[in-house]
From TrEMBL:
One of its GO terms (cellular component) is membrane. The keyword Transmembrane helix applies. It comes from Capsicum annuum (Capsicum pepper). This is Protein rolling stone-like. The keyword Transport does not apply. Keywords: Membrane, Transmembrane, Transmembrane helix.
Length: 338
């Protein structure tokens, strides 16, 4: 973001240093204490959510037959299957590979232009995370396409075989049996599938947060100050959400609320990283609201923490809108878990 934000006739932009961040008085005060409480409280809250709900635990309601899936449950095929039965997994694979290549190219070019200092910014952390998401997604989709090509037709071949065995007049029953076989044969996700799902939900919140903060807070501020936006900065804050929404429209991933905890953890780790860097080196803050020298810094930190909830909630609404529209438009083909 350094040379990307350009002010004519200058070629680069850099925030102004307001205080020496390496001296003890910068940290040993009530402002930092309150900010530290906000950050640590949000991370503790996140840890409680993750410990309570994460994982493929099966909950029982009364009798042994009445079992309920836990919010953290994920099946292996949900990471590579499209949400519509009529779409072959190869299409989702092609989209993920294309998205990964474009995002990786933009990230490399950005590092080449601005250097490693771009990783001081939360935007670049999130952009790197979504690039990793599509890299892992491409590999998982390749594995899914391989399984889809070599399996004994869970979606079609088994039904056809059962139809032959039971007779054409029992095709409906054969199809029902085939669906039951598919359901019982599904495997619970393992580490990489869960890791992929977690990154998906972290990206959902982080991308929304970065783009909202940039377009609704930083852009008006920079416009008033006379700074210009060029091709690079616009792309870094638009292409990420375009690819993420495209993948969301096609994928079969679940979106439980409790994984907002990982989103809080992600931001908390970034803030602690910034504190550690500034305690050792006196440099500018990448975002003005992170500066602890201001008397309003505790308020800024608290507001940004609360912004996580609506930003994550926006994506929850996107998922609900997808479920509503696709189940209405494609009732026989849509298969996402709600």
């Amino acid at each position: 973001m350094m040379s990307i934000l350009a002010r004519a006739p200058k070629n680069s932009w850099q925030p102004v240093m307001t205080a020496d961040t390496t001296i003890s008085s910068y940290w040993l005060n009530w402002r930092f204490l309150l900010c530290c409480i906000w950050v640590l409280a949000s991370m503790v809250f996140a840890a409680v959510l993750i410990i309570k709900y994460e994982g493929p635990r099966i909950r029982k309601n009364g009798s042994n037959e009445n079992k309920k899936e836990s919010p953290g449950l994920l099946y292996q095929d949900e990471v590579w299957r499209p949400c519509l039965k009529t779409i072959h997994p190869a299409w989702l694979l092609a989209f993920r590979v294309f998205a990964f290549m474009i995002l990786l190219l933009l990230l490399i070019l950005n590092v080449t232009v601005d250097g490693g200092e771009i990783f001081y910014y939360y935007t670049q952390w999130t952009f790197t995370l979504i690039t990793i998401y599509f890299a892992i997604g491409s590999v998982l989709s390749m594995y899914g396409c391989y399984k889809c090509h070599n399996k004994v037709g869970i979606d079609g071949t088994d039904v056809e075989r059962l139809d032959i065995e039971y007779g054409s007049q029992s095709s409906v029953a054969a199809k029902h049996i085939g669906e039951n076989v598919e359901q019982t044969s599904r495997q619970i996700a393992e580490f990489w599938e869960y890791f992929f799902q977690i990154i998906f939900q972290m990206n959902a919140g982080a991308v929304t947060l970065t783009d909202c903060v940039f377009w609704f807070i930083l852009v008006p501020y920079l416009t008033i100050k006379g700074y210009k936006l060029n091709f690079w900065i616009i792309n870094m804050h638009s292409v990420n959400v375009v690819f993420l929404l495209g993948d969301t429209a096609m994928n079969c991933l679940r979106f439980p609320w409790f994984r907002i905890g990982y989103f809080f953890m992600w931001t908390g780790i970034y803030v602690i990283f910034q504190w550690a860097v500034h305690a050792c080196i006196s440099i500018w803050w990448p975002y003005p609201f992170l500066d602890l020298s201001s008397a309003f810094s505790p308020l800024w930190y608290l507001l940004v923490a609360f912004m996580h909830i609506p930003c994550y909630g926006i994506f929850v609404l996107v998922i609900k809108l997808k479920h509503h529209l696709f189940s209405k438009w494609f009732p026989q083909s849509y298969r996402c878990a709600r």
